[in-house]
Specification:
CATH superfamily of the largest domain: Type I PLP-dependent aspartate aminotransferase-like (Major domain)
Structural class: alpha/beta
Helix content: 40-55%
Number of domains: 2
Distance between the termini: 55 Å
Largest sheet: 7 strands, mixed
CATH class of the largest domain: Alpha Beta
Length: 361
């Protein structure tokens, strides 16, 4: 019988064999501030109500009407522009993959600023599309000249703008974005605004999308407070969403996820309260970080803060030894040298994170 290693070499794509899997850090026993999760659980009363509601779900049936109900509820909650439509994904990750699948025309290119969310590049490469990354400036702003030159040269089918960006957490200059949107539109491409961190940001493209039929807005409910539910949504012109939706797997959203989402939207005030607390904590963290010698904290419009420290590995290891897990992003891109990404947690968690950082520098 053929040895397994040989079987893998012959069956699995070579580029897949050469890839690194998406890394998730073990977090047992640690204060988990590495993945931009909402740190708050539902109040006990809402936990009980949700449990009872999920217990009544007909899990013996495929999800159909419940998905339509989620789309209706999200449309009411988000209020996309007239003529727009929403489709659902198993988290925004699946929607990024579906966009690559739908745009898989020979020779097509996906373009995105770097450093950015790794799934833009990974989904493009797995689908056999070209990927072009355009470095941000040293202050993590869009390089207008480089972006426009890359668009003119590569004529991307999909251009991603994370708004705010991950891991830098900033909103890009809208005057530069306007030029990018116009340039991509003139070349028949699509612009996807990834608004994963919208609950914490001061601006959105959701309403502006109505004036640009080639613009899509991608969001997730993970930062809303439902990371465990795995539900994302894509909004855009109805005719465009109808085409992309054709490559969506049937029943990609479970009935339990759909019901949990409907419940959360009916209690949106609780999640809005949590987001307000996290925005206030973000500002408190920024002030605390500004007082630590040798630490540079970058502007944030998300539930994370990018910081540059003298030695990222030493600081990361020291914080982990003290029970606080953050994300060392220094190896992701040269612009991120000696950078750590801190998730905004509860007031108690944030105090422990600051103490651990001070002790680890």
């Amino acid at each position: 019988m053929m040895p397994l290693a040989q079987r893998i070499r012959e069956v699995i794509r070579q580029d897949v064999q050469s890839m690194h899997a998406y890394a998730i850090q073990p977090s047992a026993g640690l204060i988990k501030l590495d993945a931009m999760e909402n740190p708050f659980r539902l109040p006990q009363q809402l936990q009980s109500e949700l449990g009872e509601r999920l217990g009544r779900v007909a899990i013996n049936r495929y999800p159909a009407q419940c998905v339509a109900d989620v789309i209706s509820a999200l449309t009411e909650y988000v209020k996309p522009p007239p003529g727009s439509k929403i489709m659902l994904g198993n988290g925004s990750d699946e929607l990024i993959s579906l966009l690559a699948l739908a745009a898989d025309v020979p020779g097509n290119t996906v373009l995105a600023p770097l450093p950015g969310f790794v799934m833009y590049q990974m989904s493009a490469k797995l689908q056999g599309l070209n990927f072009v990354g355009v470095p941000l400036t040293a202050e993590f702003e869009l390089d207008a000249r480089a972006m426009l030159a890359a668009i003119a040269q590569h004529r991307p089918a999909l251009t991603y703008i994370a708004y705010p960006n991950n891991p830098s957490a900033n909103l890009f200059d809208d005057s530069v974005i306007d030029r990018i949107v116009a340039a991509v539109g003139a070349l028949q491409g699509l612009v996807v605004f990834d608004e994963a961190y919208q609950p914490f940001a001061s601006r959105t493209w959701m309403q502006r999308m109505g004036a640009h039929e080639h613009v899509l807005v991608l969001r997730t409910l993970s930062k809303f407070g439902l990371a465990g539910v795995r539900l994302g949504y894509l909004a855009g012109a109805a005719a465009l969403i109808d085409e992309i939706d054709k490559v969506r797997p049937p029943y990609n959203i479970s009935a339990l996820n759909a019901e949990a989402t409907l419940f959360a939207l009916q209690h949106a005030d609780e999640f809005a309260r949590q987001a307000a607390t996290l925005r206030a904590e973000r500002e408190r963290l920024q002030q605390a970080l500004a007082r630590i010698a040798g630490v540079k904290a970058f502007t944030s419009e998300a539930n994370m803060i990018l910081v540059r420290v003298p030695d990222a590995k030493t600081c990361f290891d020291g914080m982990k030894q003290r029970g606080v897990l953050v994300k060392n992003v220094a190896a992701m891109h040269p612009l991120l040298a000696n950078c750590l990404r801190l998730t905004v947690g509860t007031p108690e968690e944030n105090a422990l994170m600051i103490d651990a950082m001070k002790a680890s520098l």
